C-alpha cells in the first residue's frame, strides 16, 4: 500500500523518540518530520500537509489546542491525534472539540498505535474516495462599469439551478460591493464578521452564517457594511475563508473590485478559472491586455484565464476575431447585449432567470454555467418538442459556444 506521511510534535524528546520507533515498525508509515517546537511544527504541517499528525499537548496545552483547531480547519484531510499526561475528562473533551481524533496517555501503548493506524487507513481511503474540493470562479476586470457583478450574480444563480449543488457567491468588492443589492438581500452576517471567527469556521458555521438565497442552493457572503472594516481584512484571511468555502461548496463564484491589490490577487491565485470580462471597445480591450500581461507575469496557466465578452452585439465594427487577434487570446464566451432585461433585473433586485427565463441573455448565463461545471443545459421548451432528441442536440450545440483553437 502507499506510504502514509506522519508528523510528530513533542517537546519531550524521549517520548517523541519512543513514539517514532513504534510507528516505524509499520512499513507503510513515513515519518516526514519531527519537531520539539510547536510553532515550527505547525508551519511545517501547513506547508507539507501530512496525512497524520501526533501532537503532545502536555507542555503548552492552550497553544497546542489552538494549533489543533487551526490544523483541523485548514487541512480537512489531515488526522490529528493528541498525546497528554493530563487525564482530566474535561481537558480531554476540550482537546477533542478542537479537532483531535483521539487523546492518548503517555507513553502511547503499541496496541493503541496499531488500532489507531488501522482506523486512520480506513478514514484516509474514505476521504480520498469521497472528497472533491469546490471550484472557484473569479469574475474580474480592471475596468469598472462593464458588468462584473451582473455576470457573477447570474452565473452563481445559474450554477445553483443547473447543478443542484451548493454554490457560494462571495462579494470581494469590499468597499463598494453590490451583490446583495442585485439579489435584494439584507444579510445578518458578512465577511468582516467571518474573518473574526476563523477558529470556528466549519461546515455548520458557514451554512448558518452565509445568507441563503430563497430556496436555492445559493449562499451569499456579503461585503462589509462599513468602509473602514474593509481595510482591516487581510489577504491571508481571505485565503483562509476561500479555502474553507472550497471544503463546503461545490462552486464558489467571486465578484471582485477592479483593483489589483493583495486581496484580489489572493482570490485570483486560488481560482480554478478567472473570467476576464471585457466589452468590445478599444479602452476595454486595452485594459484586458494589461490584465493578461500581469497574469502571465504571475505565471497563471493560459487556460486558467477565460475571456468573456459582455454586451456582445453581432456585426459590430470591432469583431470577436479582432479582439482575439489583438489580445492573442481566445474568447471563451459571449454574453449578448440585452439592456432592458438586464436593467430590469438590476432595478428589481432579481436574477435574470426570474425576470425573463426565455431571454437570450438568460440562455447565455446558463450555457456559461454548463460549460464551467461540465453540465448539460437544455431549455424546457426544447425537451417538450415533438422531435425531442434532435432539438435537444441542436439546442445544446448552439449553446456550447466553444472557443477556437489556441492561437
Provide structural commentary.
The chain is an alpha/beta fold and 407 residues long. The protein folds into 2 domains: 4-130, 3-Layer(aba) Sandwich (Rossmann fold); 135-400, P-loop containing nucleotide triphosphate hydrolases (Rossmann fold), CATH 3.40.50.300. 48% of the residues lie in helices and 17% in strands. It has 19 helices and 13 strands. The protein has helices at 13-23, 38-48, 61-74, 89-98, 110-130, 148-163, 179-182, 191-194, 203-209, 227-232, 235-246, 262-270, 282-297, 320-327, 339-348, 352-355, 360-373, 380-383, 388-400, and strands spanning 4-9, 29-35, 52-56, 79-83, 102-104, 135-140, 167-172, 211-212, 218-221, 251-256, 273-278, 305-312, 331-336. Strands 8-9-7-10-6-11-12-13 form an 8-stranded mixed sheet, with helices on both faces. Strands 2-1-3-4-5 form a 5-stranded parallel sheet, sandwiched between helices. Helix 6 (148-163) crosses helix 17 (360-373) and helix 11 runs parallel beside helix 12 (262-270). The protein is elongated and about 75 Å long.
**Domains, number:** 2
| Number of strand elements | 13
* 3D shape: elongated
CATH class of the largest domain: Alpha Beta
Q: What count of helical segments does DSSP give?
A: 19
Strand content bin: 15-25%
Amino acid at each position: 500500500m502507499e506510504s502514509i506521511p506522519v508528523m510528530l510534535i513533542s517537546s519531550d524528546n524521549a517520548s517523541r523518540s519512543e513514539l517514532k520507533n513504534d510507528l516505524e515498525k509499520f512499513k507503510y508509515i513515513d515519518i516526514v518530520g519531527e519537531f520539539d517546537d510547536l510553532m515550527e511544527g505547525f508551519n511545517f504541517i501547513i506547508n507539507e500537509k501530512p496525512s497524520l499528525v501526533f501532537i503532545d499537548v502536555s507542555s503548552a496545552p492552550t497553544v497546542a489546542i489552538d494549533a489543533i483547531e487551526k490544523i483541523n480547519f485548514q487541512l480537512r484531510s489531515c488526522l490529528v491525534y493528541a498525546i497528554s499526561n493530563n487525564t482530566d475528562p474535561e481537558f480531554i473533551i476540550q482537546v477533542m472539540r478542537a479537532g483531535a481524533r483521539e487523546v492518548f496517555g503517555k507513553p502511547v501503548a503499541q496496541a493503541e498505535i496499531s488500532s489507531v493506524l488501522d482506523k486512520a487507513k480506513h478514514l484516509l481511503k474514505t476521504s480520498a474516495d469521497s472528497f472533491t474540493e469546490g471550484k472557484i470562479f473569479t469574475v474580474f476586470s480592471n475596468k469598472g462599469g462593464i458588468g462584473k457583478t451582473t455576470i457573477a450574480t447570474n452565473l452563481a444563480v445559474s450554477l445553483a439551478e443547473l447543478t443542484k449543488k451548493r454554490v457560494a457567491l462571495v462579494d470581494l468588492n469590499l468597499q463598494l460591493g453590490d451583490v446583495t443589492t442585485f439579489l435584494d438581500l439584507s444579510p445578518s452576517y458578512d465577511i468582516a464578521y467571518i474573518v473574526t471567527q476563523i477558529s470556528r469556521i466549519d461546515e455548520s458555521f458557514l451554512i448558518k452564517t452565509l445568507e441563503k438565497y430563497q430556496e436555492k442552493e445559493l449562499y451569499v457572503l456579503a461585503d462589509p457594511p462599513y468602509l473602514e472594516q474593509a481595510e482591516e481584512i487581510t489577504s491571508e484571511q481571505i485565503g483562509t475563508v476561500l479555502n474553507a468555502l472550497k471544503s463546503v461548496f461545490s462552486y464558489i463564484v467571486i465578484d471582485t473590485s477592479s483593483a489589483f491589490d493583495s486581496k484580489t490577487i489572493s482570490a485570483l491565485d486560488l481560482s480554478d478559472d478567472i473570467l476576464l470580462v471585457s466589452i468590445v471597445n478599444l479602452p476595454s480591450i486595452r485594459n484586458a491586455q494589461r490584465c493578461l500581461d500581469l497574469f502571465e507575469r504571475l505565471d497563471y496557466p493560459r487556460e486558467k484565464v477565460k475571456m468573456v465578452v459582455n454586451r456582445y452585439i453581432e456585426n459590430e465594427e470591432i469583431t470577436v476575431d479582432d479582439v482575439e487577434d489583438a489580445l492573442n487570446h481566445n474568447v471563451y464566451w459571449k454574453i449578448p447585449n440585452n439592456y432592458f432585461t438586464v436593467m430590469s433585473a438590476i432595478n428589481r433586485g432579481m436574477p435574470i432567470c426570474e425576470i425573463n427565463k426565455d431571454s437570450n441573455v438568460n440562455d447565455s448565463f446558463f450555457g456559461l454555467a454548463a460549460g464551467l461545471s461540465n453540465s448539460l443545459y437544455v431549455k424546457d421548451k426544447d425537451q417538450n418538442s415533438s422531435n425531442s432528441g434532435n432539438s435537444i442536440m441542436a439546442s445544446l450545440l448552439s449553446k456550447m459556444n466553444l472557443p477556437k483553437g489556441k492561437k
